[in-house]
Write a structure and sequence with these properties.
The protein is α/β, with parallel strands linked by helices. Helix content is about 35%, strand content about 15%. The protein contains 9 helices and 13 strands. The strands form 4 sheets. A 7-stranded parallel sheet has the order 3-2-1-4-5-6-11, with helices on both faces. Strands 7-10 form a two-stranded parallel sheet. A two-stranded parallel sheet has the order 8-13. Helix 1 links the parallel strand 1 and strand 2. Helix 1 crosses helix 6, helix 5 runs parallel beside helix 7 and helix 7 packs across helix 9.
């Protein structure tokens, strides 16, 4: 039986990944320090004998025996990663060193949850994997962006120097059930605001764009990437290439929730990228993958989740 470690396994993406890995017959070790993750996200898996939950911080070494590692541990939303920026960099960099060290000792395959933020505020559009990015190294997003860039560096150096089998996924905005309701990200903010009948906070004039991928599609991409032959290392963009303005998103959320909320305009945060859309040609070719859920379908499922959460805040 394959033994798989998921760091950040009690988080949004991690908990969906644990579910899918268990369905595939693997033994799953879910590791989390519960900084943004919740036990409730994996509570329904606890009765499964092939599932184990471990409290641990990836900035400290870990000695376990595994065949595959998915390294997802890291706060992902600006509100959370800017709360303790030094810890954010440590999580990305020390976390990568520790998990790569574990992979080296166990000869495990290791996948890194990297991010579209490595492209910063991109000067090229859409972003292909060979674009080197436009990141402010001393700005308020740098703890996350530069931490993730350094983690990629470490992955490729371990690959070249120690012949580790690595897979680097550059994840673009992903949404769905189990997103943190207060993480400040646009989908959760708008849905929570609309369900509560509050104003939707649109930053700037709302003409900035993002491309939103539904969580199930993202998890499918992770599994396919991990299963690729050893010569496939990435980095590989994974996300949904359909691009929307943030104003369009706000209007769609109001329509789908049937809310009477209005849109209010607020100042745009520093270093907020103007446009973001992945070029996923490589993922299509190498993984034979492309997103299947459109924004409307994914939003309906996400709205259902947040409506249930509002009715039962201790866990759904
Ligand atoms: P999340 O915050 O829900 O999950 C991160 C998990 O990591 C949480 O459970 C948190 O408690 C845990 N964690 C944080 N620091 C830790 C530490 N030092 N030790 C152990 N556990 C720690 O976020 P998510 O959206 O599920 O993101 C998962 C991964 O995917 C992250 O690495 C993130 O950078 C990456 N990513 C996500 C998106 C997205 O749109 N969701 C986009 C790009 C990249
Ligand atoms: N945004 C917004 N209102 C909110 C939260 C975010 O208008 O309540 C905007 C934000 O300025 C950005 C976009 O939505 O332009 C996506 O923000 P998010 O934090 O979700 O992701 P990221 O900027 O990391 O892509």
């Amino acid at each position: 039986m394959k033994r798989v470690l998921v760091t950040g396994g009690a988080g949004f993406l991690g908990s969906h990944l644990c579910e899918r890995l268990l369905e595939s017959g693997a033994e799953v070790l879910c590791l989390d320090n519960f900084y943004t993750g919740r036990r409730a996200h994996v509570a329904h898996l606890m009765a499964e004998p092939r599932f184990e939950l471990m409290r641990h911080d990836v900035t400290f070494p870990l000695y376990v025996e595994v065949d595959e590692i998915y390294n997802l541990a890291c706060p992902a939303s600006p509100v959370h990663y800017q709360f303790d920026p030094v810890q954010t960099t440590k999580t990305s960099v020390h976390g990568a060193i520790n998990m790569l060290g574990l992979a080296k000792r166990t000869r495990a395959k290791i996948l890194q949850a990297s991010t579209s933020e490595v492209y910063g505020d991109p000067a090229e559009h859409p972003q292909t994997e060979d674009y080197w990015g436009n990141v402010n190294p001393i700005g308020i997003r740098a703890c996350y962006d530069e931490g993730k860039r350094c983690a990629e560096t470490l992955f490729f150096d371990y690959h070249r120097q120690h012949r580790l089998r690595i897979k680097v996924a550059r994840i673009f905005n992903t949404y769905g059930p189990r997103m943190h309701p207060n993480d400040g990200r646009v989908v959760s903010n708008f849905v929570v605001q609309a369900l509560a009948g509050k104003d939707l906070t649109l930053y700037g004039d709302g003409s900035q764009t993002r491309s939103f991928c539904y969580v199930d599609d993202m998890i499918e991409a992770f599994l396919r990437l991990m299963a690729t032959p050893d010569e496939v290392t990435g980095p590989i963009n994974v996300g949904n290439p359909s691009e929307f303005t943030i104003r369009e998103l706000a209007e769609l959320v109001i329509e789908l929730t049937g809310s009477s909320s209005r849109i209010v305009y607020q100042p745009i945060p520093a270093d907020d990228p103007r446009r973001r859309r992945p070029d996923i040609s490589k993922a299509q070719a190498v993984l034979d993958w492309q997103p299947r859920s459109d924004l409307r379908t994914g939003l309906i499922r996400t709205i259902e989740y947040f409506a249930r959460l509002a009715a039962s805040p201790t866990g759904v």
